[in-house]
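=== RUN LOG ===
request id: a7f3
mode: sequence -> structure
chains: 1
length: 263
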Amino acid sequence: MGPNTDRYPFGAFEHAPGTAWPDPLLTLAAAAAVTDGIRLSTGVLLAPLRPGPALAKTLATLDVLSSGRAEPGVGIGWQREEFEACGVSWESRYTTFDEALRMCRRLWDTPAAARVGAGRDADAALESVPRPVQARLPLLLGLAPGRRTARRIAEFGDGWCPVRLTPPQVSAGLAEIRAAMQEAGRSPDSLIVRVQAPLVQRADGRMDVERTLSCAPDFERAGATVLAVGPTVGCRTMSDVANLVDEIARVAPQVGLALRGGS
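=== RESULT ===
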């Protein structure tokens, strides 16, 4: 993370540049070892910063270790410094993103060796084993609404996890996604639509859970299927986090929400 968090395009960035960001997939692997019901997702994993074959291998391994619970949200990122540090072209980030996800699909969905690569290596046959446990490992794309996003989801996505959109914006974006999926011969009926509950804080800086979850009916009418609640601002200890999760579990049914994977 570079120091220029003021360039965050989605409003105020809640974290200082020095905040610890554990690797998301290693963290989810640790969670997989001590759970058996919850889905394991990211919001979002920066796909262009990981080579396509490595991304495919890591996500497939997570799916195997968790007995088919991986549901990664993938995006592109917003900070140029991260790309420069990893030696990845900022200007080509969307092309790199497409190539990485396309390679994942080839390595996961091809029954034998897949033809992958670019340039002189375009005909290289690679096989990546183990393959995911799920017949189709779902990829949620965390991109802004628009025709290009709709086409990307239609090609290799299974869901949409936009950042900080209003219910009307979600509804409009979904209309484009559903049309693109139908045009590509795919049914949009099983589309996962994960949205973020706008954070409402109390005077002490902690989450006001009831007011934060009050948006659920509007997002459901817009077409959302999953409401993500976070971040854990104001939590200074793991006990604080546990108490927050317990409060969310208590309040969620009051606004018609069912917790995925139980409590």
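=== NOTES ===
The first strand starts at residue 45 and ends at 46.
The chain has a mean pLDDT of 90.
=== END ===
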